[in-house]
Amino acid sequence: MRHSQTLIPTLKEVPADAEIASHKLLVRAGYIRQTAAGVYSFLPLGNRVLKHVEEIIREEMDRVGAVEMLMPALQPADLWKQSGRWYNFGAELMRVNDRHERQFALGATHEEVITKLIGDEVKSYKRLPLTVYQIQSKFRDEKRPRFGLLRGREFTMKDAYSFHQSTESLDDMYDKMFRAYSNIFRRCGLDFRAVIADSGAMGGKDTHEFMVLSEIGEDTIAYSDHSSFAANIEMAPVNNEYLQPNEEAKPLELIDTPGRYTMHDVAQYLDQPLANGMKSLLFKVDEEFVLVLSRGDHDINEVKLKNAYQATNVEMATEAEINEVLGANAGSVGPVHIDQIDVIADHAVRSIMNGYCGANQDDKHFINVCPDRDFKVNAYYDLRFIQEGDPSPDGQGTIQFARGIEVGHVFKLGNIYADKIGAGFLNEQGKQETMTMGCYGIGVSRTLAAIVEQFHDEDGIVWPKAIAPYDLHLLTMNPKHQDQFELSESLYQQLQQKRFSVLYDDRKERPGVKFADSDLIGLPVRLTVGKRAQEGYVECKVRATGEQFDIHISELDEKLTALLESSH
């Protein structure tokens, strides 16, 4: 493609609203432009990268037997009401009415639509298992769109859905998809981890997220320093074995703690370690109040709390609700003398002896508190966030943290949607059964941004060969020089005939502008036709390493093939 015939509006200045490298560079290098907050146009270069990622996805989906289709973005509200997600998906679901006041959703995901479609069309076990996928725009009304393509209101996604007559069949496809996703992100050149995850609004269980390691990632990954264990911090289990203190229980005592309302303040006032305190938080779990306890140096994990109760909604009680239910402000609540609501605790609380906690009276705390002696715990669960330095749940090594960008997610949905929307089939005995489902998503545009986060330098983007918009960037230093012009034109034709994709900078611009734009755009190899054109020599630069050398055009084909094959 000739630069003069395409749209590559590069910028020298960093966009004012861009906070991270991928947002800055994709805008500056002319890959994307913002149309509205969280809504972007993919310009020719950006669209080519997007298509290359999609090609890799299609190849891996074909390999596991998934077939491509396309579903509507506009979805009737009735389907979402059948699944229950019209009410509990949240404000991110974009809802619209047509001229007849019929309600629709702009597709944030397609479980409802595909379940209805397959339920209507597949009636026999003979047509199962079946896996379909699509690559399509999705819509979510983000409260605060930011980070360019990483958190947008419209984005490109690959979503796949598998339908089975047994959990064994689902397990088999889940494993295939897991491997396919690993292949996809590996082929994109990414440094990633597959981590145990929470299913969130999707439902189901047994899920994994694929996380690209990056300091700007919005998720925290907990991983072992001696094994392959990795999990989203929300789902990382914690070892529930704690050493019991070797000391005598003391009498419970009520004391004054004026103006001390945080665990740190109380610990300092009592001159006791945080680990000997009991943090007491009041939650509403599906509208029922529950007092949740953790050790003072631990934090309650709301995802674990939700899963412990198999709840739909979990939220912190308001200050007014805390006063109404427990009779004190949030900094003075505790479990002693509580019998009107459930009291549950993290496993670590069981090991506290002669601890301290709020007394449900403002400015007062109990000391010498012993669980199960001084208050009743309805149940103990793993409720806390794992911490760096904790033993790895698999018994190998200790936990370390890293930041990650979620680019893919695989779910075992079971029959949650098939039951609600009605996707059944006749088994071998002619009896009706409910289908079992899996769901598998990749954020295609997020993947593009994540690649830039990992592959860039101070001069611009450094694309891996597999997804670069073009293989080669051909530059003419001075098109007015006949020998340079003729060699450039000849090379442009010859290289394309050799099946290289080429971006040919034929603009009448200064060499410095062309070099700067070339580094910014970030194609794997740059060829510069300059003062040695008459001798048949061009300058070759490898973008990833910065290596530069002159090469005769007679050796160019072989050298370029080797360079591109070795590119990351």
Short description:
By secondary structure, the chain is an alpha+beta fold. It is 26% helix and 29% strand.
Describe this protein's structure:
This protein is an alpha+beta fold and 568 residues long. The protein has three domains: 234 residues, BirA Bifunctional Protein, domain 2; 129 residues, YbaK protein (Alpha-Beta Complex); 97 residues, Rossmann fold (3-Layer(aba) Sandwich). It is built from 14 helices and 31 strands. The strands form eight sheets. Strands 3, 7, 8, 9, 10, 11, 12, 21 and 24 form a nine-stranded mixed β-sheet that branches. The protein has a five-stranded mixed β-sheet with strand order 16-14-15-17-20. It has a five-stranded mixed β-sheet with strand order 28-27-29-30-31, sandwiched between helices. α1 packs across α11. The model has no long low-confidence stretch (mean pLDDT 94). Keywords: Aminoacyl-tRNA synthetase, ATP-binding, Cytoplasm, Ligase, Nucleotide-binding, Protein biosynthesis. It is found in: Cytoplasm.
